[in-house]
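Escalation from tier 1.

The customer reports that the assembly of two entities below gives different structure tokens on two consecutive runs. Tier 1 could not reproduce it. I'm attaching the input and our single run for tier 2 to review.
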Amino acid sequence: MSTKLLNPSRREVLKAMAAAGVVAGVGPTLASRAFAADKVVVGVIYVGPKDDYGYNQAQAQAAAAIKKLPGVTVIEEEKVPETVDVQKTMASMIEQDGAVLIFPTSFGYFDPHVIKMAEKYPKVRFAHCGGLWNEAKHPKNSGSYFGYIDECQYLNGVVAGYTTKSKKLGFIAAKPIPQVLRNINAFTLGAQSVNPAITTQVIFTGDWALPVKEAEAANSMIDQGIDVITMHVDSPKVIVETCERRGIYVCGYHANQAALAPKGYLTGAEWNWLTPYTVHVKAVGAGTPMNNFLRGGLKEGFVKTSAYGPAVSDAAKKTADGVKAKMMKDEFVIFKGPLKDNTGKVVIPGGTAYKQQDVVLEQMNYLVAGVAGKV
Amino acid sequence: MRRAAEAIVIPVGALLVAMIIFGAFMGVIGKDPLEVYALIYKGAFSSGFAWQNTLQRAAPLILTALCVALPAQTGLIVIGGEGALVLGGLAAAVIGHALSGASPLLSGGSPLLSGASPLAVQISMAAAAMLVGGAWIALAGALRHYRGVNETISSLLLTYIGLALFNHFVEGPLRDPASLNKPSTMPIGDANMVGHLPGMDVHWGLVYGIAFCIVAYVLVRHTVQGFALSIVGGNVRAAKLAGLPVGMLILVSCFLGGAAAGLAGMAEVAAVHGSANASLIAGYGYAGILVSFIARHNPLAILPVATLLGGIAASGGMLQRRLDLPDATVLVLEGIAFMVILASETLYGRFRMFQPRET
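Tier 1 run:
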């Protein structure tokens, strides 16, 4: 029977097509899966595919986890562009499916799309991923959640610093915007904490998902002798695969990519969005006011690191775990003076230390000394 | 009459065949085709909300389809609407900001410019967008006419150049320093936004598109100049023998097409985003190619076809939310529809019942 199922005869296929045609022709009897009224309907919107081994997958993992909470229904839409389409998607989730809480997960969804919809549907909550919500300007039923993932990039840097033999690291990034620069700098500072002579080569690809350029960048870095690469692009998949194929090491980003590089994957900076998702879902369930501004790092459980790969030395694990323990106790500061950028200018004077929450860090517009690249 | 019936029956029949194939495909992956079609209907056309969703998504496609349909009248296959759209949007954002009174550079010297009324700003934005988009596609037409460069390839390559220029300006010289993590140009100001149609959640881009289609239809089908375009499209040498200004006609048809795509960019800036940024690069230019080919490059037929594709896009979300189907589902449906409709082109003139009776 199994062979027959796999190889249907032409007659059977024709029959199936005819049947489908008849069914299709019968006309629209409205089949609707009505959602029970006592359930909390949560909508999650992704800008790319849910299984991208990256930004969207990190969000989808949290969505899959809250699906299991009792009394919660999750509806999802992927590959929704940052145009009026996302407004229509949000409105459809509310009007057609009764969503009361929406996670529009792409940074570019916020202004103007989330703001407009939050004004139009004041009873629905919109929790946007990013850090854009401003109490003075934005509706109270909207808010931001974000994580200090540069902590994990610092730890990536520590592990990379122990692993590299050429003392040359690579960072493939999308655009020179503050969030990305902060990751590049944290990664480099982490590596330099192991050996101050280590340098990081940066390549900006220009956009969030350009797999061909990302592969080219990875290959050209490897050709230059770089032996550990990390990244800040939406889907690190192709970079991680390229590194594994060329036999060098890689630190992941957004989600866990260990499955793509069983030999060369060192560790990775991962989001743990389940933490803010749970806060919002519970608040809706309990009817408590929305927490408009949620932020945290390792300590608060907003980010996490991937398990160490087989190539990570014991010394690297020990040092990285030591730094991580300090971060968990809020005793570690990544950005402190004296710090110079790669043009020799002092960007943080001696004696000044910026804690993670400091808004100065969100306007970062420099690359620290030891980074080869230009903003 | 019979010819007209043929022009309706064949594409509608082709769409039905496409739906049957897609239904079989859904059946094979274990989804009930009946439920899928019911959801497509529900998501796209069942209510006022669904219709607005559909029309909103159709609006940019109408204009970008014209960017294919108008040059096609002279026999050119232009697929570079995306480049004309983003550059038109950029031009609109620059002019909109310059006239909004927030720019000391332009308004400082001239008090006339600083207090421009929103309508004047919007008209200037539309004019700038159409000029830039039109010039961009006319470039492909000029390369074709004067240098013999294939316009399909050159318009596609021009799109890549256009996107690179767009990104350079948005992230470089024209960047609003306040747009930290999402590089954008300076805002045109809320007062200058065109807003929604009265009583609807659909922006004015839809009206621009419908008006442009009607004007294009009259031009192409009911004027001498339109007739000249179709002669060039039918046979360039015959057109030259008849003394028609072939080069000018090609350039004008390309310019008008590009102007439509540029106007779509202006609508994105003035009705949705308020500035130019990477969100303008949404693939509308490419989707317009599909619309124009299904409409057989008839400017009026673009309207129902764009509505249909807008509806499929609108219901795509419904399929994802209710049936957990991937986003690619609607692409499969669109792809099947495109292939079947292209294949059905060979059927024209083959059915005796559609032929005019011999007298």
